[in-house]
Amino acid sequence: MAAVTADQTTQSTSGTAKAAGRAAGTAPDAADAARLAVFEAAVAADDRIEPRDWMPEAYRATLVRQMAQHAHSEIIGMQPEANWITRAPSLRRKAILMAKVQDEAGHGLYLYSAAETLGTSREELLDKLHAGRQRYSSIFNYPTLTWADVGAIGWLVDGAAITNQVPLCRCSYGPYARAMVRICKEESFHQRQGYELLLALSRGTEAQHAMAQDAVDRWWWPSLMMFGPPDDASSHSEQSMAWKIKRHSNDELRQRFVDICVPQAEALGLTLPDPDLRWNEERGQHDFGAIDWTEFQEVLKGNGPCNEQRITQRRRAHEEGAWVRDAAAAYAAKHTTPSTRTAQPAQHVEETA
Amino acid sequence: MSSSTDWPLWEVFVRSRRGLSHTHAGSLHAPDAEMALRNARDLYTRRSEGVSIWVVPSTEITASSPDEKDSFFEPAGDKPYRHPTFYEIPDGVKHL
């Protein structure tokens, strides 16, 4: 799942410090200019940039920021849904939900690994998440109040994530693009199980139908916010588009998502909570109402309904898992033969990737 | 003087073009990593099949056992709900 909006974070990463280190003592601008020309030609030709290629530090920093936020969103995103595993209404639904939450963990791991090819470490990224220095998608700061929310998340939140992520499969950075191909393939089941769940409720009793409608009413607007601020207020968009990290603007993707959802909602027998939503014959697209960006900014600032709860739970899970990591390391150390220990000097990830 | 068969075996992975993963191409014997890389270039990319090569000592690869194949991969076997086709979506609903 996980929304990637390149726009939600502002912190820079360790890349900057490394840049300074690397720049010191290297030949002057001529060499850099030549390398930059090679990089830009590769991007222009729609070639992928791979870990050992030279890349501008700002490109590296932007990728680390975006991929870290994306990875964090995957693992934080496990929380609102895991909330319902023990209360799933049937064994079938329970098995499905567990498989989905398990997938989110897997997606986080793909993305952390891809981010590590940029010279950052898993530990550093988790530290920054726990310290509030890197963000995750604001959507996960909303609560899952009823079982129908599991359906609404699958249909709308995963649907918005897919709309965002499909173009990322062609992102200019190879490891990120490859991770996205895997993720998008797996994401399809997430969306369909949510849709099927909502359909069952919508066609169920009056109370079940009302529960489904209520969930859609609450998740619709936050899902539209997942695409990030409007284009004219989006600070990172232009550069990310030039680097082909991003392929479409926030508003473009948001519009695409709305147009996809309207007929899907009709087929569900549910309405979308927007009185201004209507087909615009002239544009060949739907018009829709104004988004409450104040709410978005508030949630981003940490004042959403569940910000505190999510990050507290994440920190606690990390701390409570410490003994498992320690035990695994102790076991490995005990069972590693002396020869393998000396034969494998820890190589920096950049050297091997 | 040792024959080349005494040299360690290296597994060769070739990236055919930017954007694709390195995939296993085959193996070769070489006395060290540097020679393995050069030999891999000569052996596996004579027709420009690659833009990047990895060589890994074969002994460094930990592989799952073929004998345990069934039990090892069995847990995923009874989880058809991990596939999108498991879910019934009404006819005519698009983009799902």
If you average the pLDDT of chain B, what whole number results?
Answer: 90
Major sheet: arrangement of strands of chain B: 2-1-3
How would a textbook summarize the main sheet of chain A? 2 strands, antiparallel
Helix share bin of chain A: 55-70%
What separation lies between the terminal Cα atoms of chain A? 26 Å
Helix content of chain B: 10-25%
Name the strands of the widest sheet of chain A in spatial order.
1-2
> Which spans of chain B have pLDDT < 50 for at least 5 consecutive residues?
none
The chain pair forming the largest interface, with residue counts per chain, is: A-B, 29 and 23 residues
* Beta fraction of chain B: 15-25%
Task: Please compute the radius of gyration of chain B using only Cα atoms.
Answer: 21 Å
Unreliable sequence segments of chain A: 1-25, 342-353
Number of separate helices of chain B: 2
- Tell me, what's the shape of chain B? elongated
Average pLDDT level of chain A: 89
Distance between the termini of chain B: 65 Å
Q: Oligomeric form of this entry?
A: heterodimer
Number of strands of chain A: 2
What does this structure look like?
The complex is a heterodimer of chains A (353) and B (96). With 353 residues, chain A is an all-alpha fold. Helix content of chain A is 64%, strand content 2%. Chain A contains 16 helices and two strands. Chain A has a two-stranded antiparallel sheet with strand order 1-2. In chain A, helix 7 packs antiparallel against helix 8, helix 7 runs parallel beside helix 9 (206-225) and helix 8 packs antiparallel against helix 9 (206-225). Chain B is of the alpha+beta class. In chain B, 18% of the residues lie in helices and 21% in strands. Chain B is built from two helices and three strands, in the order E-E-H-E-H. Chain B has helices at 33-44, 69-73, and strands at residues 9-15, 23-29, 52-57. The termini of chain B are far apart. Chains A and B meet through helix 5, helix 8 and helix 11 of A and loops of B. Chain B: Pfam families: PaaB (PF06243).
